[in-house]
Amino acid sequence: MIVTRKAMSRRTVLRGMGTVVALPLLDAMVPALTALAQTPANVVPRLGVVYHPNGVIYENWLPKGVGQEFELSPTLAPLAPFRDQLLVITGLSSHQAEALGDGGGDHSRATGTYLTGVHVRKSDSVVGNSVSMDQVAAKFYERDTQLSSLQLTVDDNSLVGSCDVGYSCAYSSTLSWLTPTLPLMAENNPRVVFERLFGSSDSTDPRVRASRLRQDRSILDSVTARVRQLQRKLGPTDGTKVNDYLESLRDVERRIQKAEEQSAKEGPEVVQPAGVPDGFEPHVQLLYDLQLLAYQSDLTRVITFMYGREQTGRPYPQIGIPEPHHSLTHHQNDPAKMMKCAKIQTYHVKLFVDYLTKLRATPDGDGSLLDHVILLYGSGISNSDRHTHGPLPTLLLGGGAGTLKGGRHLVYPDDTPLTNLQLTLLNKIGVPAATLGDSTGQFKELSELS
Amino acid sequence: MKQGTVTTCICLAWAAAIGLEALTAHGEGLPDSHSGLARAAHAVLAPAAFPQIAAPADAASATPPRDLVMRYCVSCHNDRLRTGNLSLDKADADHVFNSAETWEKVVVKLRGRAMPPPGSRRPDNATYEAVAGWLETELDREALSHPNPGRPADLHRLNRTEYGNAVRDLLGVEIDPNALLPPDTQAYGFDNNADALAIEPALLDRYLTAAARIARLAIGDPSIRPTFERYTAVKGNSNEQTWLWQTDRLGEDFPLGSRGGIATRHYFPLDGEYVFKVRLARTYADLVRGLNVPNEIEIRVDGTRVGTFKLGGGGPEVSAAAAPAAQDPLGVKNPLNDADEGLQVRVPLKAGLRQVVATIVKADRIKPEGLGPDRIPIWTREYDVPTVPVFISSLLIGGPYNGRVSQDSSSRRRIFSCQPASRNDESACATTILSTLARRAYRRQPTDEDIQTLLGFYQQARGDGDFDAGIRAALERVLVSPDFLFRIEADPDKVARGAAYRISDVELASRLSFFLWSSIPDDELLDLAIRGRLQDPQTLEQQARRMLADPRARVALVNNFFAQWLQTRNVWLLTPDANRKYPWFDDNLRAAFVRETELFLDDQLKADHGIVDLLTADYTFLNEQLAWHYGVPGVYGSHFRRVALTDENRWGLLGKASVLAVTAYPNRTSPTIRGKWLLENILAAPVPPPPPNVNTNLEEDKTGKAESVRDMLERHRANPACASCHARMDPLGFSLENFDALGQWRTLDGGTPINATGVLLDGTRVDGPAALRRALVAQQEQFVRTVTGKLLTYAIGREMAYYDAPAIRSIVRAAAPDGYRWSAALLAIVKSQPFQMRRSRS
Fold this sequence. Notes:
The complex is a heterodimer.
Chain A: E1 46-51, H1 58-61, E2 86-93, H2 106-114, H3 133-141, E3 150-153, E4 162-164, E5 167-168, H4 169-173, E6 177-179, E7 182-183, H5 190-198, H6 206-234, H7 241-262, H8 280-296, E8 302-306, H9 325-329, H10 335-360, E9 363-364, E10 367-368, H11 369-372, E11 373-378, E12 394-397, E13 408-417, H12 418-428
Helix pairs in contact in A: 5-8, 6-7, 8-10
Chain B: H1 2-27, H2 30-40, H3 49-53, H4 64-73, H5 100-111, H6 125-145, E1 155-157, H7 160-171, H8 177-180, H9 201-219, E2 227-232, E3 258-268, E4 271-280, E5 295-301, E6 304-311, H10 316-322, E7 344-349, E8 352-361, E9 392-404, H11 410-415, H12 423-442, H13 448-464, H14 467-479, H15 482-485, E10 486-488, E11 500-502, H16 505-516, H17 523-530, H18 537-549, H19 551-565, H20 587-606, H21 613-616, E12 619-622, H22 624-630, E13 641-644, H23 657-662, H24 671-681, H25 709-717, H26 720-734, E14 748-749, E15 752-753, E16 757-759, E17 765-767, H27 769-778, H28 780-796, H29 805-815, H30 822-831, H31 833-836, E18 837-839
Antiparallel strand pairs in B: 1-10, 2-9, 3-8, 4-7, 4-9, 5-6, 5-8, 11-18, 12-13, 14-15, 16-17
Helix pairs in contact in B: 1-2, 1-6, 1-29, 5-6, 6-29, 9-14, 12-13, 12-14, 13-14, 16-17, 18-30, 19-20, 24-26, 25-26, 28-29, 29-30
């Protein structure tokens, strides 16, 4: 499906024995990649969401001018080479992330609400949200790909509990909600992501993988039989647990079946990453590379990615900002601090641009991967100092398989629900949806010049 | 129906055997009860009021609750208004058990003095106690003959901590479950809540992957490809960028005379060669630091030095580093960018679990970091200067190379209970091995079908490979079996609907081991369970005591129970304002907060102190840095040692920096959060969440004048909507105001002197932490009840309901004669109805 082994450089992640300076996974191989399955007649759109925590310095972010005549702002300047596939969208807000009587916890609500448009339940014991926009799409595509979706983050996810006054960590640690009570935890370890994509056989060798898949399948069959037996023994269960279990088994089985169908195709020979690489930048690059690889191999069509959880205190010494990010964003209009925040946001955009560059260099069907993705890039907080949830900094990148017309700054009336945009995007990629959270309608302007 | 009757009778007899002693003592034999309470020295019930009120339930006259309710409650809590969604009109005040759910709510409100709301006409303290006591006596007496042990989920998934422990105890392999499995959700305070432990596709995927990896590690697979594991200096921090200062020995795992580094446990799957590679800390410009002077770094495996690196001490690369300004970080490569490239050593090692340490040999000229409030923010410390001492930022362990399957690794010895002498023996031996594995993993006697299933996997893989490959395939199947991954509790075949029944011995064995060890039963416990011997109370008690004496119990309870109950796990999430307020906060101090609490709790359990000693203990465990933080003189060096606390404000949990910091904001204290924490975790009187449409943010004074948090909160409480709850939370929290957001002692806040006067729910006035503690101790039964409720929630993995209240009170009474010692309380839980019984499906 993707690549011939000959064309593949073995210099991928690990540079020789004992070296784990994580090279960006694809640097050496992007030019060699050829998508075999994708023909011009067979283009599929993909959806990605990229979330950056702790808001923005809005005046540094907001482009001047509207429509086609806009001028990139300092924060967005690195996007210049992608201007023709960029839509800057302003005027949107996430009203449901406001307190609405729940008091503090804006950071948790910002992420929790971002893709659901629902006012999340304030609790650190019982979570309550709604199915997120990416999962609506994932459900639609689940029969076509091995994995219905992927959730990635840079932050360590080993901590659970209460992350923000009275809110479960689930709200600030992931964007994806499979059900109103089931958040899908985001993964930060590239090795684990790799295993989910390519299996745990240490290898992308088709024979090794095939034998691994056979073993997995017979284990699943046998486990399914046992769960059915338990279901009979336990009788009608109190909750949905056995059904969830069987449903999950079916889902994994579907993935394995899909993998077996595709196992005749050659996969890219990629050595699995050793784990979390040293430093933020190589880590982000590796996670972006894995996203590209997943899209390119059509292992999944839906990905959410977070630069970090809300309130992250990550310092950015590599760009001269050793202070913790979150406390910096409570800048109280101190210009020096605001400049530092803006610098971090520009840095995030730069790393995103590296990803866009690779997407554009990756052939896919009649064009490039960038032509066929829709990437929503933004944050659930606007002004981090005051915890506002609008106007939200929102970008769309990519061609969406002919559904998006970039090169414009679209301005909507203040307080237009962010979910209107997300609902529109779902329909653009062929996922029929009538409403999403607090949505009030759809946008016509994304594919039309206005 | 007949069956049901029989079952219930058994239960009653059994319930009487375990609970009646305490209950009858309370209801009838008052002298006993009092002497028991008197031994505990702080009876809460007013002795004079109690016997007068304890009238029989069928008294025709108004019962104490009816009297109280009519006088103080029904004007709001009636059918028409239903204030707080509670009506007391129809509650049966004569036979209170008929309205147990309502009356248990009333008990909580009375004991917590939460109702009537402040400002309304309220009963006096004696009446509060007397009515609550009367209700409890009645409810408990009836509960005894109508046991309702609740219904924990029939499928209770192991959380990832338990999974890791189970793998360790089953196979002798230590893995990092956090790297293999996704995180679990917390509910009702704990991550072992059965309802919250969901099942989703990604999780099953990860179980498959984990099983394959663990089976290969445990049995050894000559075809394992070399892989690298990376360990960082701050545990659980996947990024290298930390504020861990490495100028001193970091803990007991490190050799004397060392400074900094990384200590970890690593499982080596084969006899073979392994690579250890050290990566050093860099400046912001990505230059390796500290190479201006000679340094010696060593690698030790199980205490034996296997490699030494000498580096630094001059040379051209250091001269280059001396002029960092000339370096363009994006331009020409500086030799210091990869000066640690060669720090690796390849060592032959035997398979097994080993302790690996990478550390720096301490040289005299490295001065410990100066301690003092005038220190500059740690992130501005000379991280940018290449002459800051060498720190180790990560340790990579790679391999195996030239690996051979070890015949005597600890895990193989554990798994291979026989070795086939010839091909003919293989089938019988495989059956033996797999039966033993299944028994331990499934925590019960395996069925023929279990064994046949596993043999099927064995045979398939044996056909394609060798004997090991066969066992490995079957082991993978074991590790993804629902019988391993879930604690399964099923109603017995012929039990009546909605009846309380005693769970089976093997189910009880799992409850016991997951409660005390966060892991599977060991062979001794399991053997007894399979033989039906846990029915015998003496055997059960003897097993529980044996398990408590095992160090695994203290590790599991400290890390999984206490750290979640006290919320001290959140220390790892603290982000104190390092810019202005707490520039000296670094990861050494963070780790010290955690370490102190762990050592203190471990000691409390080990010495089997009373539960109340958690509040009153006049000792703790400190190293120099934490002692400085507390203002305790005379503690030198980085190792922790037991220290007597002369300042009684520091005694017990309420003086611990971990507790005080997780109940504060990054830049200031919050009496509200501390008050709420005390109400929920110490006083069993939780507060409801803020009402809708209330601004919960503190407004700073418009004129911008400096003011204390107390001033701001006083203004907040002027709003009556806020006052109803804040009047309960804030006054409690105020009494801890002498501790700042990191738990340091202070006398000023915002320039004004600290006012640490507070008011308890019963009106007791306190001033400062010590007075608060004394007042809490005076009501110690509330505290013991709180701890018991939390313990029971954790022990059975479900939220507490009204029908658990009698059991909780019974546990407290059972532990009272023993001064609420930990052993007594934990045993009483093990003996309680909710722990030993279950309600069948209704």
